[in-house]
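Form 12-C: Joint structure prediction
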Amino acid sequence: MPTAEDVKARIEASIPGATAEVQSPDNVHFNARVVAEAFAGLSRIEQHRLVYAAFEGELGGEIHALQLKTETP
Amino acid sequence: MSEQASNPIRDAIQQAIDENPVILFMKGTPEQPMCGFSARTAGALQSLGAPFAAVDILPDPRIRQELSALSNWPTIPQLFVNGELVGGCDIVTEMYETGELAQVLGVEQTEPGPVETQAVGPRPMGIENRMS
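Section 2 - Result
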């Protein structure tokens, strides 16, 4: 099962320059705050899709839920 | 083409999105949500008094599969307004708190504030992700 550290690393590797704070009580549900320059000019939907792209096919499966807050620096 | 299999489920989803100005795809029903995130999203719509259609995706796993393929959004719930994906629980909650959701739905928001739902109760938002 992925840990909060794994999820943080995945997000930061997937979005250049992103900083992620990730918490998880159970390694199934995750809560992430992601700050990235790459979000500038994107709608919230597009920002979240950018983060989801790091977890192709795993969301809703091994990662049951990823609560997400996206921000620009 | 004849090779292209028809996809009745995806067509039905698209039709539901086209025919309902506000439609929520969720786990369970607004009266009996089966997931904390679906509960919170339905609760936001209910507390604004906005009429909305709700589709329970649980009865057939293909509904979720086809919905996500259509919307390019991996998780449930998903809220559509006027045919456009507005977002999932996090975005809808954020928009509720800033008053944007009321704006998008064209309703008056009397008391902006944290979403409370019957199913989950008045808990701090942060811990709800343990409950689905």
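Section 3 - Comments
Residues 118-132 of chain B have pLDDT under 50 and may be disordered. The first strand of chain B starts at residue 22 and ends at 26.
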